Amino acid sequence: MERNVMIEEISDGKLYGPEDGVRLDAQGCKGCSWCCEEMCDTIALDPYDIYSLHKGTGKDFTALMLEGYLVIALYDLISMPHINDRGSGCGFLSSEKRCTVHAYRPGFCRLFPLGRYYHDDTFSYILQTHECKVEERDVVKVRDWLEIEDLEAYEEYVLKWHALVKKISNFMKEPAEPGVKRNLHVLFLKKFFEAPYDISKDFYPQIYARMKEWEEM
Questions:
Q1: How far is Cα 211 from Cα 128, in angstroms, rounded to an integer?
Q2: Domain that holds residue 135
Q3: What's the rounded Cα separation, in Å, for the pair 42 and 136?
Q4: Domain for residue 5, yes or no?
């Protein structure tokens, strides 16, 4: 979710790239699961997250919704899937309060406590200083922290997805005929989330094809 704040208010004021070392590693979180229990309503998912969860769990978007792992909520005025708070936090938490989908966890979870700062048609990573409750953290390279295969391709996708979402969000702020915005919410969810992705194939050609179809609509 975009926030109109000075980065010095929420971070150490520095901009980081994939090769930079940042004090991120909470050494297994030392038994802490605060972010997994308290931040579900902030964890909006994008199509790559749905694709990854489908590959990892065998459950597509519809199954994840029906089984209560996800809920639809507004994100920058757009209906998007979020991690569902089932009363004790994320439904993917085990009884021991450990993540059961860590290898294919959502992008926001991979980032934490990093954030993204968008600027000049690109983005940098920032270290959010008021989020993680673990105070003693080791330095780790951003690329290693994210654990994303082909990070360059992923970052290119993130920029394109961000641009698309921002464009729709801006439209949602403008006056429109009755029902237009409601229909847009429905179409957006169907196009980018409800229609299953082929998990036997590469994600990026599939999402770019959908983005192109959306722009042509």
A1: 31
A2: 11-216
A3: 24
A4: no
Angstrom distance (rounded) from CA 143 to CA 152: 10
pTM, full prediction:
0.92
The encoded tokens of residue 5 equal: 């704040």
Strands 138-141 and 21-25: antiparallel
In the chain, count of helices (H) and strands (E)? 9, 6
Token look-up 């979180």 returns: 29
User: What's the burial of 6, exposed, middle or buried (CB within 10 Å: 0-12/13-18/19+)?
Assistant: exposed
| Distance (Å, whole) CA 34 – CA 180 | 39
Cβ atoms of 43 and 83 within 8 Å: the answer is yes
Q: How does strand 70-75 pair with strand 122-127?
A: unpaired
Tally of domains in the chain? 1
Q: Spell 18-34 as b/e; 16+ CB within 10 A means b.
A: beeebebebeebeeebe
Condensed to tens digits (0 to 9), the pLDDT of residues 24-51 reads: 988 878 778 889 988 888 899 999 999 9
In a domain, 69, yes or no: yes
**Is 51 a member of any domain?**
yes
